[in-house]
Inverse folding.
């Protein structure tokens, strides 16, 4: 995933996954055989109450350059378009803004904090709502932007990330989105939680199926 000379931008939303990834990559940078640059990139969607300063101060405390891109994505999605199901458009616009921010500074890789539970939920969202067997890849290439997207935590249990937050006193920024915890992803999360309770070992077997899925082109 990481090669000598890479310029890696970490997409930092302020949530636990992205901030723990940022800290982990900073630690890895100190002893990695590959020499690479590392900076944090945050997209401000325009919601009132989004705490950019906490992210900025944390980046300063671990000596990582911080970049923020201010946008009006919230206004477009909720006020102008008045999307009834806003997540898809918002995610596409946020990704576009993030990719452009990296390109403007000449970065060639984007690191995202998706973990194993994200991969499983994405698989079920794809099956249930799109009729496809697709999920998140550990690494992909954006041909138009000429940027690699890497997900170093993709096979990591979310519980390990939660432990790291407590162990390393990593500050978490509250998501100010109006529909936070009210999305189809949250519904799938609850469905999977029920499945795991009823079928011991189901989560690990689903994850194993995902790991083996490259043979069947199970990637976006």
């Amino acid at each position: 995933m990481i090669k000598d000379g890479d310029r890696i931008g970490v997409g930092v939303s302020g949530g636990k996954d992205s901030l723990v990834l940022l800290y982990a990559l900073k630690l890895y940078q100190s002893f990695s055989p590959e020499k690479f640059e590392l900076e944090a990139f945050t997209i401000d969607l325009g919601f009132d109450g989004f705490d950019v300063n906490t992210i900025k101060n944390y980046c300063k405390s671990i000596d990582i350059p911080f970049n923020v891109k201010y946008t009006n994505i919230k206004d477009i999605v909720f006020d102008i378009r008045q999307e009834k199901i806003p997540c898809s458009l918002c995610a596409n616009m946020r990704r576009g803004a993030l990719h452009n921010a990296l390109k403007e500074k000449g970065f060639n890789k984007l690191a995202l904090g998706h973990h194993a539970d994200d991969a499983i939920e994405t698989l079920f969202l794809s099956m249930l709502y799109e009729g496809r067997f697709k999920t998140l890849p550990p690494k992909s290439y954006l041909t138009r932007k000429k940027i690699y997207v890497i997900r170093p935590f993709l096979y990591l249990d979310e519980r390990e990330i939660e432990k790291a937050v407590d162990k390393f006193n990593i500050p978490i920024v509250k998501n100010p989105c109006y529909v936070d915890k009210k999305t189809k992803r949250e519904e799938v999360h609850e469905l999977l939680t029920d499945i795991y309770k009823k079928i011991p070992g189901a989560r690990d077997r689903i994850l194993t199926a995902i790991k083996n899925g490259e043979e069947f082109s199970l990637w976006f």
Notes: Strands lie at 7-11, 37-44, 66-70, 109-111, 139-142, 147-150.
